[in-house]
Prior knowledge:
It is a single chain. The chain has helices spanning 4-30, 36-57, 66-84, 86-90, 97-108, 124-147, 149-152, 162-169, 175-199, 204-215, 233-246, 250-257, 263-266, 268-291, 296-311, 326-335, 351-369, 386-413, 417-428, 436-439, 450-464, 468-471, and strands spanning 378-379, 382-383. By secondary structure, the protein is mostly helical. It has a domain at 384-479. The chain has a two-stranded antiparallel ribbon with strand order 1-2. A hairpin with a 2-residue loop joins strand 1 and strand 2. The longest helix is centred in the last third of the chain and has 28 residues, at 386-413. The chain is globular. The termini are close together. Residues 163-173 have low confidence and may be disordered.
Amino acid sequence: MDYRPIFFIVGILLVMLGIAMLIPAIADGIAANPDWRVFLASAFLTSFIGGIFILMNRSRFGFLGVRQAFILTTMSWIVIAAFGALPFMFSNLELTYTDSFFEAMSGITTTGSTVVTGLDFASPGILLWRALLQWLGGIGIVVMAIAVLPMLGVGGMQLFHMESSDRSDKMMPRAAQISTTIAAIYLFLTVVCFAAYWAAGMSPFDAIAHSMTTIATGGFSTSDASIGHFDSSAVHWIAVCFMILGSLPFLLYFQAVRGHVHALWQDTQVRWFCGITVFGLATMVYWRWRTADDAFWDTLRDCAFNVTSIITGTGYSTADYTTWGTFAVSAFFLFMFVGGCAGSTSCSIKAFRFQILFAVLRTQLLRLWQPHGVFVPYYNRKPLEESVTQAVMVFFFLFILAFGLLTLVLAAIGLDFVTSVSGAATAIANVGPALGDIIGPAGTFTALPDSAKWVLSVGMLLGRLELLTVLVLFTPGFWRA
């Protein structure tokens, strides 16, 4: 295997990461915070090592092969988290490298779990760096879901292969052009979200930070109280709208820009996602209306915000929903496993896999009572290939297996049952807050032992890269020539 293109691209990513570090350095410099030196030094070190990778591996090489793509995808997220942790470790936060890596991995995977406390008094550079990591991770996962995962056939993502879309929808022929256009759409949505937050009463800095983490469905905030710090209905409803927009397929935004304005609603995956979200919201509103004394509109706002936040994997909170009763806690635990749409910044299992699972289940039930009938599962009004259904079934099996193993390891470390189960769920589903008093929406992951933080970091990586992308690297046959 030729590793030069892998290290060459990793070098480019490190240089880009180093350049991004200059933004919080400028923010701290303007605020006269001494941490600007930390960001400047981290930027120099990161860019220097990235430059070495580029110079040592520059040569004429063709397209990446499948095995190279698997290695590059996993390596990129690990290396970016490793270097993205440097500002956290050397800043006034005084975090250990374990905590710093956990925070950086949570950021770049758009998980939103945090070990940082006192955010209301943190330097602007640190707050901006956390938001930037999630924003970069969001666009990174969109591009990967469009250009890489369909080629690798991970978890049924071959359904969204661009070549077939090019022929049927007359889209741009090159993946680079599509990725560039989608990055422009991503930036546009971020700017619109910033303008909406600012108009609703946020300060320009808070609006910038939250617009990046909202579109990325990441969930990092500038306050320990998350979005709940801004006691504003307008801010909360704006967040709900843009969390949903970040969870829709960006490839369909691309089609809408090119004239297919009905592409979003005509896609059955979008309908399923919206249907699941509305059903979850209606159920929770009914529960809260029966059990709480709040006004209906306040109940609707709190339920809409928190249900949308957990289903989309954003992880913001306006209230401690673990105090809403046993039913609410159980419901929010299940919401963690839903996720948004494929090709979005969202995470977890995703709506299209539930569609395929339901289509396969329906087909099997029909075959039971009509053994001589011919039944074929469909997705988006097209018959499903057997390779797609197999990939989705494998993904479900691995997801459940990984969730169970993470839970057992966390329990073996010494965490209680609720913390172990919900911690494993929030890590592999990339949601952010878990359940319980320690790592629930009102807590942080600071109190967990270092070993648990490394386990959860692995879980975040597995969940963000769709499991198989990482696990295939541990098969002996992968490394054979």
